[in-house]
Design a protein that fits this description.
mainly alpha
Length: about 120
């Protein structure tokens, strides 16, 4: 029989409280990290490996946002619904995203960085 602390560790640790009403990109990143940790904690309980893989995908998005913010790119404005900046995504990050997507959706067409799309990279 495992004790309470071992059970928490196996389930991804205790539930994290999300910040109240995050406003700045830094506060939003902290909320995103807490939400991902909570998702992981709950996803493990499903015993569905592919469902758990979404945690890695979300975590990679968070890392990309964090790195872009350090370069002065406001990730909160980088989406198809605004004329905001484009996130810089490295080839190796794209490879990792594809690895996760391949696990979750084995027949999915993979994501590629395409120069014709003017994808920003750190090269």
């Amino acid at each position: 029989m495992i004790d309470r602390e071992e059970a928490k560790a196996l389930l991804g640790g205790p539930q994290r409280k999300l910040p109240d009403n995050p406003q700045t990109p830094e506060e939003i990143l902290e909320a995103m990290k807490a939400a991902n940790a909570n998702y992981y904690r709950e996803a493990i309980a499903t015993s569905c490996h592919t469902f758990i893989e979404f945690t890695g995908l979300i975590g990679e998005y968070i890392k990309i946002c964090e790195r872009n913010l350090k370069r002065g790119i406001d990730f909160t404005q980088a989406n198809v619904h605004t004329d905001g900046p484009r996130l810089r995504i490295e080839d190796w990050e794209c490879d990792y995203i594809n690895e996760k997507l391949r696990c979750i959706f084995p027949s999915l067409r993979m994501v590629r960085l395409d120069d014709s799309e003017e994808v920003a990279t750190d090269k």
